[in-house]
């Protein structure tokens, strides 16, 4: 059984910024568009995990250590996205996306980005 805290992510119920991958939020109106916001992290690869991943790739199967590292990176990027949104006065991020790239062959760059906005419930 997979532990959702180790291999999952996303928002917690206590988050004060709603993050969605859609253009709008049902039951809400966009009062103000603030603009682009992002959260970025770059993680280096641990030598031990690289060796383990290399051996595992010969036999096939999930690379659990690398999966956990990527989940942690995505969650950290998401936390930074939310902080950036709050700092700019937003309470929502619309059209959120992740971008993952290799960073100079030493690590992985994870960027969460979207459009910060102020939303309010429809009366």
UniProtKB/TrEMBL annotation:
Domain of life: Bacteria
InterPro entries xrefs: UPF0145_dom_sf, UPF0145_YbjQ-like
Gene3D superfamilies on file: Hypothetical protein apc22750. Chain B
A Pfam family the protein falls into: YbjQ_1
PANTHER family registered for this protein in UniProt: UPF0145 PROTEIN SCO3412, UPF0145 PROTEIN YBJQ
Family statement: Belongs to the UPF0145 family.
Protein's name according to its UniProt entry: UPF0145 protein ABWK59_26680
Protein's organism: Kitasatospora camelliae
């Amino acid at each position: 059984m997979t532990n959702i805290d180790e291999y999952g992510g996303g928002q917690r119920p206590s988050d004060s910024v709603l993050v969605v991958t859609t253009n709008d939020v049902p039951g809400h109106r966009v009062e103000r568009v603030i603009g682009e916001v992002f959260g970025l992290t770059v993680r280096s690869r641990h030598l031990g995990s690289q060796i383990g991943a290399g051996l595992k790739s010969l036999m096939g199967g999930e690379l659990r250590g690398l999966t956990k590292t990527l989940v942690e990176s995505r969650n950290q990027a998401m936390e930074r996205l939310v902080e950036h949104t709050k700092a700019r006065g937003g309470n929502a991020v619309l059209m959120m996306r992740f971008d993952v790239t290799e960073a100079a062959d030493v690590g992985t760059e994870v960027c969460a980005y979207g459009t910060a906005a102020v939303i309010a419930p429809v009366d």
